[in-house]
Amino acid sequence: MARKTVIPIGPFHPLQEEPEHFTLTVEGERVVDVDMELGYNHRGIEKLAEAKSWQQITFLVARICGICSTSHPIAYCNAVEDLCKVEIPERAKYIRTIVGELERIHSHLLWLGLAGHFLGYNTVWMWAWKWREPVLDIFEALTGNRNHYDMLLPGGVRRDIDEKNIPWIKKEMDEIKKKLDMITKAVLDDPVILSRLKGVGVLPPEEAKNYGAVGPTVRASGVKIDVRKDDPYAAYDKVDWDVITCENGDLLDKVVVRILETFESIKIMEKCLDALKEVKGEIITPIREFPPGEGIGHHEAPRGETFHYVKSDGGAGPIRHKVRAPTYVNLPTCKVTAPGCQIADAVIILAAIDPCYCCTERVGIVRDKKKEWLTQQDLVKLSWEKTERLRSKYAR
Amino acid sequence: MGWKEKILRRSLWVYHLGTGACNNCDIEILDVLTPRHDAERFGIKLVGSVRHADVLLVTGVITRKCLPRVLRVYEQMPEPRVVVAIGACPMEGCVFKGSYNQAGPLDKIVPVSLYIPGCPPKPEAIIAGVAKLMETLK
Lengths: 396, 138
Prior knowledge:
The structure holds two protein chains of two kinds.
Chain A: E1 4-9, E2 21-27, E3 30-37, H1 45-49, H2 54-62, H3 71-84, H4 90-118, H5 122-143, E4 152-153, E5 156-157, H6 166-188, H7 191-197, H8 205-211, H9 216-219, H10 227-230, H11 251-278, E6 293-301, E7 304-312, E8 320-324, H12 327-330, H13 334-337, H14 343-351, H15 357-360, H16 376-394
Antiparallel strand pairs in A: 1-2, 2-3, 4-5, 6-7, 7-8
Helix pairs in contact in A: 2-3, 4-5, 4-11, 5-6, 6-11
Chain B: H1 3-8, E1 13-18, H2 24-33, E2 45-46, E3 55-59, H3 67-76, E4 82-86, H4 89-92, E5 114-116, H5 123-137
Parallel strand pairs in B: 1-2, 1-3, 3-4, 4-5
Helix pairs in contact in B: 2-5
């Protein structure tokens, strides 16, 4: 029997932007097992949300993740509107859809670039990120920010889309389509890239369902789930579009699904921009009362279903706010896809789910042997004591 | 001025350390290196190991799990070294201020030479900040 070696990746690794620890167990060149450790990015957002008002939380959840910084607000606003039983204005629905789809375009281009970088094909990285810049320009024109758009509030959206911007946005979208066509032909006809991607890191549909994976990860395996279609919100049931699926579930299909989805997003966006010419009126329904109860909301983020739950006692903010991000269920699928591959392929397989660790982070359990039950005040006190201890230990 | 400082002012090699950020500042740092902004014009290069780096770019609130590792990475850096805090998070916590898991701000842990505020700072702001930093090193 061959000797097993353990290769640690991270937490601070040049290929990962975020701190994350992977342990690869290898036999020779072959990966036999993979393990991961979370918690470096945990910022306690659910706890922070309990101390903020309903409106403020929209800006807090936008900062859960920088790439899907409108997915979380959409899901959260859906949850609050579910709690208050409020219908948002028609125009706001279209604007939400436009921002959500723009984000998908920018996120998929970003992932395409990073995937090229992980394969050692830096030209793709430079190309994809260069073509992502016009999308960020559109964001800046529509929302005021390149990232962290802060476009939503419970009840509607904060800014209207100016009519005179629409022709320019459409022109930019046409440009992106042409360039995506070019990159699709250039990259997917490349025999080297094909041999790196085809048949590697296969996720069978049964395993995808067992792990409860969501988004492009599972659509590449041929499972047709998409929140936008299954439980429509915003304007997704008002425009005509298709859910993209592939069959094989290997890395190539994950790339193909994302590229085709980008085209689909551009289609949805163009239809919504056309609809904006007819649909006029208010963009926000002010919500004055937040009744006691519960609300749930979800949104198909670029990586899969984002889920938010809020519980209210009728006060100024929620008494419980729960977030489940797509990477949390997609990440364990590495247990299926990584074993059996070469070490050189491991990095791209781990990155193929488009991981976003800052969405996912959880924290361990606090235990105290002296006391059986810890109240909230105890936990807060323990927490601050530990922080001060660490601060004084490492301060200079 | 010693020979080390003379070398430092020519071409800055940077190492990026995300310590509990929302990913956005990290993306903007990578964005600075891509064709539109192209910081490699100024000799700025992202390196894979902190042992090759002159500048440490820190993003994110320093979470408690990251705190010992930040210090360890800092101590592995060769001198002369410069630390840059990018975004509002390492400065004072941004929206995460008051979180039970935040152990920052960064300047309580390591000496910081440059702050680039913003949530996230635009690539132009990052380039302007680094240009100012290069001025001060002369």
